[in-house]
Predict the structure.
Amino acid sequence: MDGETFDVAVVGAGITGLTAAFHAARRGLRVAVLEAGEAGAGASGRNSGFVIPTLSRVGPDDVARAWGDARAARFNAQLSGAATALFEFIRAEGIVCDARQNGWLQPDRLEPSDGVWQHRLRTQRQAGADARLVERDELHALCGTARYPAALCLTEGGQIDPLAFTRGLAAAFTRLGGTVLNGCRLLAPAAEQTKVLVGLDTSLGMVFARRVIMATNANGHDGARNLTAATLPFALVLAAYDLPVCGADHVLRTHQPFSDVGRDMAFFRRLQGNRLLTGMFPTSTRLSREAIDAELQRRIGHVFGVETTGLTDLWAGRVGVTPRGLPQLLQFGPNVFGWTGCNGRGIALSFVMGHWLADLVADAPIESIPVPLQALKAARAPQLGVWFARRLIAAERRRRERHERRGATPACTVLHYPLD
């Protein structure tokens, strides 16, 4: 590739990068995606597969305070429609990725009469989401668990196989004539070569482009490491289990994924082939496979009352957590753009971010993008922030275990990160 020139070069073949590349190519631009591994090798292929059209730790009022009422209204409206847009895209492009728009559930230990539920419903509806309250009997029928009195349901959410989706997205992009360069590592930050071209020093040679999109989020290395500096490097462990042939039909029978409210979040997705996905935030870098397996088996048994037939897959990803919980649209130079900050809601947000980045490199007015453009600002003391959050998660995990042994059902506590 040494000396090749493109209209747009995208660094990172994940959901954001490939979505941006697809829409830029559909505008008639010559686009190349530079990927250090292969499509989906980063967070896009290493997540829970939940499609959730909202932010995780902030509400519409927080967005309005940060960005202003007008911009926040446009952002919330487009994000709330991102899940439906993604599922429509999957159907239009014929991507096979176990896509199910059945809704996403967020259960809690609070009784349906608790006023917190009405506050949560108002917040989600204010952001444009189609939200309703699911009470115990219906929740048991949908998910097969009686451990929660109620759950918030976002009806436009759902689930996909994220790795299959990302690879299908890569195929859709190449059908438009786009180029995906696997094994192409960015060796140094993108640098302006002339007034119209940006140079990218890669392991496959020097590549030039009129516009560059940095789409590595929290998984960048070498020349893409600067994006990682804007986030707290929070790890997520994921696992898949075989369910027993008999006695597990009630487990997520309607294929509605859920993740509960809390620091030590319990989350589950039913996979094809009578399998179950779950995971946890590790509280130590020294956790063994056996310790992870034991903790996740305990959760499955407590929530669904079944014993699995064994762990089949174990892997890890990295969540791009920003201190304020908001996504960041970044400008590294006159013609170099990027973003970070999925904050655990990466699929729908990454998809819509890809659209906005495609608009930017196609010379759309900056004012038309719902997220404000800003310079990169590194997170302060990121390792300290991660250490503090892990301690809070570990404390809630121990508290949950104590209550489970006594047969009690404690309310969960939402995690707020300490950095501003």
